[in-house]
Design goal:
The chain has 4 helices and 4 strands; from the N terminus they run αββααββα. With about 140 residues, it is of the alpha+beta class. A hairpin with a 2-residue loop joins strand 3 and strand 4. The protein is elongated and about 50 Å long.
């Protein structure tokens, strides 16, 4: 982990090793995602660059991902929020509803248009990825 300094214009230089590992280029877009008390920079990649990234995926994770999308669609809230509200009986149970982070509704302004779900190693990371995906859908 390297420490960087924020300039008077609130700019930072991404360390060379990190740039090289992520194959970042000058002018490339990144998403700045605020998560708890930190900012995560996620490189924006063209859809073509994603070709084949799911090869060899564990199908059990695919089912969890699909279930998280179904729940986020039915409840129109994140699966994490649903889990909290279900415990306090603020919502009714959705059959086979996922109660951990990973599913995120997709909104266009105030209009609900669908959902994104991710399933991987840690639920909180799944939600971050889903939110990043949902944020680029217009």
């Amino acid at each position: 982990m390297e420490t960087v300094t924020i300039s008077p214009k609130f700019q930072v230089v991404i360390p060379k090793g990190n740039r090289e590992r992520l194959k970042l280029r000058p002018g490339q877009k990144v998403q700045a995602i605020l998560y708890d008390d930190r900012i995560e920079l996620v490189p924006v990649r063209p859809a073509k660059a994603m070709k084949g990234f799911l090869k060899g995926i564990d199908t059990k994770l695919s089912i969890l991902m699909a279930d998280s999308v179904i729940l986020a669609t039915a409840a129109k809230m994140t699966t994490a929020d649903y889990g909290v509200k279900l415990k306090t009986k603020e919502v009714t149970e959705v059959p086979n509803g996922i109660t951990f982070a990973g599913g995120v509704p997709v909104m266009r302004g105030a209009e609900f248009i669908g959902a994104v779900g991710t399933s991987g190693v840690q639920a909180i990371q799944d939600e971050q990825v889903s939110k990043a995906g949902a944020s680029v859908i217009k």
